[in-house]
Amino acid sequence: MRVIELSDRQEKIIQIVKDNQPITSEDIACKLSLTRSTLRPDLALLTMSGILEARPRVGYFYCGKSSLNFFYDTIKKIKVSDIKSLPVVVNEETTVYDAIVTLFLEDIGTIFVISDGFLSGVVSRKDFLQSCIGGTDINKIPVGVIMTRMPNITVVKADESVLDAASKIIEHEVDSLPIVHEVKKDDGNIGYKVVGRVSKTNITRLFVDLSRT
Ligand code: ADP
Fold first, then answer.
1. Does residue 182 share a domain with residue 102?
2. How does pLDDT run across 131-185, given as a tens digit for each residue?
3. Is 125 in the pocket of ligand 1 (CB under 6 A)?
4. What is the mean pLDDT of residues 12-35?
5. Which of these, 205, 200, 178, lies nearest to 191 by C-alpha position?
6. Residue partners of 89: CB distance under 8 A and separation at least 6
7. For position 62, which CATH number holds?
8. Is 57 within the bounds of a domain?
9. Nearest-10 crossing angle of helices 67-77, 162-172
10. Is residue 19 part of a domain?
11. Ligand 1 pocket, 131 CB below 6 A?
12. Of 4, 34, 52, 192, which cross-links 180 as Cys (Cβ 3.0–4.6 Å)?
């Protein structure tokens, strides 16, 4: 498995903390001839990943974690809600044609389908292509006919980790997951309200952001 390398500056910060702990961010910045605000993202990342510990009014301590644990710990701590996108949703009655137009207008690959306000299905590029080459009258047939339907939808909750979401995406071989909030329906059954979307793109963007921090 590849792990994200710490930047030279982050390695230097760790060494300074190891040699001088506890040390304030001001003193770390002074030793590196940088401003505190320049260091803030590095310190946030190093504490979030458990490499450093920040004690208020005392300073930073080294916790001894290796960068090998760092990647796992970081993506385990980041919640799906931290990286989510807005979901694009249509009703089951929407025609396949209108749903395809939505796909283009919103520039996405997957649309979530709802019925009475609750998640009822997912429709993706392959579903649309299949219905088109199969000769479906896309102006008449609703997406409800061609979508993948509940309960076969893989979902994720907002407080699940990015690692959980990535594992589900790989395991179920899909591009995106609806982020859902579980609600007890009037009939006593459990329904899902769609509150967001997490896709391979969100996760890839997070990787790039982490490597730039
Ligand atoms: P694409 O069609 O662009 O390759 P996917 O690989 O995500 O996109 O979709 C493949 C199949 O999986 C489609 O039939 C789609 O309806 C279904 N699918 C997509 N996302 C999910 C999900 N979260 N849960 C269950 N099935 C899904």
1. yes
2. 999 988 999 999 999 999 999 999 999 999 999 999 999 999 999 999 999 999 8
3. yes
4. 95
5. 178
6. 111, 112, 113, 114, 194
7. 1.10.10.10
8. yes
9. 90
10. yes
11. no
12. 192
The residue whose CA has the least distance to atom 19 of ligand 1 is 174
Is 144 among the domain residues? yes
One domain for residues 150 and 182 = yes
Same domain, 73 and 89: no
Q: Is there an atom of ligand 1 within 6 Å of 177 CB?
A: yes
Domain count, the chain: 2
Indicate whether 42 belongs to any domain: yes
- Answer yes or no: do 123 and 55 share one domain: no
By residue range, what is the domain housing residue 157?
80-211
Q: What is the pLDDT of residues 93-116, one digit of tens each?
A: 999 999 999 999 999 999 999 999
CA gyration radius for the chain?
Answer: 23
This prediction's pTM:
0.72
Pocket test for ligand 1, best of 88, 89, 122 (most atoms within 8 A of CB): 122
Q: How far is the CA of 96 from the centre of ligand 1 (A)?
A: 16
How far is ligand 1, taken at its centre, from the CA of residue 75, in Å? 24
Confidence (pLDDT) at 92: 98
My answer on whether 127 and 72 are in the same domain is no
User: Is residue 180 lining ligand 1, measured as CB closer than 6 Å?
Assistant: no
Find the DSSP H helices in the chain.
Answer: 8-20, 25-32, 36-48, 67-77, 80-83, 96-106, 125-133, 143-146, 162-172, 200-212
Q: What is the pLDDT of residues 54-103, one digit of tens each?
A: 998 899 999 876 555 667 777 888 999 999 999 999 999 999 999 999 99
Ligand 1 atom closest to the CA of 122, numbered from 1: 16
Ligand 1 atom closest to the Cα of residue 147 is: 16
